Amino acid sequence: MSGATVMGPKFESQKVAYWFFATCMLLFSLQLVYGFIMGFAHMGYDGLHEWIPFNAARATHTNLLVVWLLTGFMGAAYYIVPEESNRELYSTKLAYVQLGSLVLVGVVAIIGFHLNWWEGRKFLEIPRELDYLVVINVLMFLFNIGMTALKGKRYTTTNMVLISGLVSAALLYLPGMIHFSNQTYDSYFRWWVVHLWVEGVWELIMGAILAYLLIKLTGLDREVIEKWLFIIVGITFLSGILGTGHHYYFIGAPAYWLPVGAFFSALEPLAFLGMAMWAVTTARKSQRNHPNRLALYWTVGCAVVAFVGAGFLGFAHTLPSVNIWTHGTLVTAMHGHLAFWGAYAMIVMGLITYAMPNLTGRKLYQSRIAHSAFWISNLGMISMTGAFAVAGIAQVYIERRMGMDFLAVQKEVEVHFFGLILAATLFTIGIILYIWNFIQYGLPVRSQAAVEETESVPGDVAPAAGPAMKRSLS
Amino acid sequence: MLSKSTARNFFLGTTILFSLVFLGMTVDTIRQTPKRTNAHNLTPLVAQGQKIWTDNNCMGCHTLMGEGAYYAPELTKVYERRGAAWIKMLIKDPQAMYPGERKMVQYDFTDQEIDALIAFFKWVGEIDLNGFPAEPDLAPKPVAVSGSSASAQSAAAGEPRPGMYDSICAGCHAIGGKGGSVGPALDDIGARMTEAELDEWLADPASIRPGTTMPQIPMSDDDRAEMAAFLAKLKG
User: Fold this and answer.
1) How far apart are the CA of A189 and the nearest CA of chain B, in angstroms?
2) Number of C-beta neighbours around residue A177 at 10 A
């Protein structure tokens, strides 16, 4: 997209995104470390039990995932919203303050997990006191993004879908903060956050980023791409909202959730299928031979792997007659890993792959390291899914259906965790290559806007740490 | 050809429609939940147990109502399966109950806190969960028992067992093929040890065989005598 070769992004404030992406890389690396701790514990090597018991490793692993994905979405928003709104970010300084406070809350939460300070509710383990700080942080973010869009007065569909996804994600965090002593209510409203995020509003964010990337990479008509974006997110909500019912089968909620959850969650793969077909056909019709082929790999790969991981493997155990046996087994871990990788990790990594050459002005399009990273990480994750599948299916049959004791079953499936660790090693090599490539790009350089107006700094940007750093780089 | 505004209306229409249906169903779920969960039994003790469950992230290893992590056993029916006495012993010293096995965090809960957790488990076990967890449908039928253990079963079945046997001992030991497999089967324990030896052994296993994985079970002298007398009758 950028015409000049030595210049950075279109707008100076888009460089904020770089620091969000760098944070993603750091948190993602740490997430993998905790994944290995759990994998080894499952194999019987739990030497760290005294310091990092399994529940601490687990809470850290999943929360790091959520935080790095949200950091990635925020970085994506800071990159996309100025460009779609055709103006600088409302406040660069606020964005840096927001990133700093987000990291601070995250670090405190993770240390807390190791000191038995948490709220043991799956995926929402961050303690209540920190929840309030998260809310303030997200409000800062939404204010900054919202003001940028409002002042820009250029309301593209992609931008609006992205922002409404982010706003809805923030609103849906609130039901997770209500306290219940009744475990059924606790679980019921916890899924309002977790399910309606990942099978609802996060798909708005994912769809919008996909649309943005497809518009940029293929050069096809924005109107056509955005029309299909509406159709796809429409199918997402048509199926996903009542599809929440697949979490309500066995938690004490009424029995009508079984047929309702089954029917609508069986439709959920359609949204992912639509997304995959949309990405593949758009990419094939591409009118522009964009040099960043790898960004297109990640974009199309994201849509395809999301269909397999979230759509197909989700459907594999969503019907009540299957779920009665698989509920609460390693089968869930099988689905979870490929779904989060395909739908959300890959979209963030796709956007980073697209944005890095523009942010840094270095056009490392042909990097063999970056290409290897794409293939090795995907191969590794698909193999990990296979290892979880074998362990999970074995567990379902010998424990749930034949009645073998839990611990005896865990011994039976230990060998599959060896397979898991081998696959995870492959995956990790892919991620190390990706991060290596990220580092090779170096730091962001002066934007096109800044080069054009050399003498003046935008009025609302105070000469604080962020801008000072930028000046020293340019 | 479908226009963009039609596509937008489809998106907005389905979102609003299904959000409203979802809210309506939520209202009805909230209406039915007190009865399905026996909310009248949700005492302050149960609520305290739920808080302990949450504060210690028990879900980070176990599942409850099938939700949580997959590192430790499903606990929805743990009260029915193990009983209060066994749960209490396990929480006080998990490693003693499962020596050399996957570890559980050693919590320093008070007796009152453990009672609260047990009350919580009992309450959860009584919720109407639409049939979860299902009974194993492919489990081998307990008909084909081999010769020696069949006779042991009939011999043991004739003996009235102390209440503590089923709630504690059976967690690790088996008689007639029924029970745990952590410790040795007890079908012929009476042929291997006398009543006096058994009594001494139960009082302090480690003093007789240092390093044994058998925990010292807290029980009164009378209970121990009753248990030793029962075990001494199991001659295989």
Assistant:
1) 10
2) 15
